[in-house]
Design a protein that fits this description.
mainly beta; three-stranded antiparallel beta sheet; two-stranded antiparallel ribbon; 3% helix
Amino acid sequence: MEDWLWFPDECEIAFTCEFIDGPRTDEDLCAVTNISFFDPDYGDFFFYGDDPYEWPPGDYIFKITGTIGDLSDVYEFVLKLEDPCVIAQFTWGTIPFTDAVYILESPEIIQAWVDDDLYSVDYGNNGECGTIIVDFYNYNTEDYFDDESWFIFDNN
């Protein structure tokens, strides 16, 4: 956005921000704590959000109004949020796990694997897209194994 010009210089200009529309409208994006900030002294808007689940990709439309006395001028702009991970390609590698029968109270079954063998991700030119989480669950019951005592993780 270009700087606002007004004359005479002694007159003070007041700026306001109005969030018009966007993929998420339950928050006033002109002022969401730790996400966005509008500076009423200079008419500048700042956006700090980086969570595509919290702030869905798309066009967010704003109206900035500058007022001196009884005179106003309006500037509309579009903040376009894009998900950089939408083009990421996730590929399974050779699955290192084999079906196994475990007899209770027997020695542990070792099914060793490392992330780089299990999958690969091509982020294109977008760098990282966040942490990849590997979960284990029972296919028959669809229960997740979230009790860490079931597994021994060795990152060495």
